[in-house]
């Protein structure tokens, strides 16, 4: 992220449990939301400047595929908050087989 000058990196399929945040080192921080069974999950890694400007993080309680991070960036977007929505929509659909018992 440093070399490419990326401020925010959104991640899908994180497969971490719970809703929380962790320091990664070099000032970077990851905010994430995942389910108990380690499926799906979304997250965002922020650089030190954006990490300090986080206003709010909203994780949808029963949905491990949706998350919102609000960042206040005064110089960049004219005193407005930047809202980043992380949404994971898998491309491969698991098909469930339904077996009907004959009575």
Residue share in helices?
under 10%
Task: Tell me about the largest β-sheet.
Answer: 4 strands, antiparallel
Based on the structure, what is the oligomeric state of the protein chains?
single chain
Give the ordered list of helices and strands: EEEEHEEE
Unreliable stretches: none
Computed structural class: mainly beta
| Rg estimate, integer Å | 17 Å
The total tally of domains equals 1
Strand order in the largest sheet: 1-4-3-2
- Please tell me what the overall shape is: globular
Question: Mean pLDDT score, rounded?
Answer: 81
SS summary, helix count: 1
Beta strands, count? 7
Strand content: 35-45%
Distance between the termini: 60 Å
Could you describe the 3D structure shown?
The chain is mainly beta. It has one domain. It is built from one helix and seven strands. Strands 1-4-3-2 form a four-stranded antiparallel beta sheet. The protein is globular and about 45 Å long. The N and C termini lie far apart (60 Å). The mean pLDDT is 81.
Please sum up the structure shown.
The chain has 103 residues and is mainly beta.
């Amino acid at each position: 992220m440093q070399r490419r000058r990326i401020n925010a990196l959104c991640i899908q399929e994180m497969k971490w449990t719970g809703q929380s945040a962790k320091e990664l080192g070099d000032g970077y921080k990851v905010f994430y939301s995942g389910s108990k069974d380690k499926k799906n999950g979304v997250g965002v890694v922020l650089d030190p400047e954006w990490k300090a400007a986080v206003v709010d993080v909203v994780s949808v309680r029963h949905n491990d595929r949706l998350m919102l991070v609000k960042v206040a960036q005064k110089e960049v977007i004219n005193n407005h908050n930047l809202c980043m929505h992380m949404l994971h929509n898998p491309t491969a659909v698991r098909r469930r087989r339904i077996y009907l018992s004959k009575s």
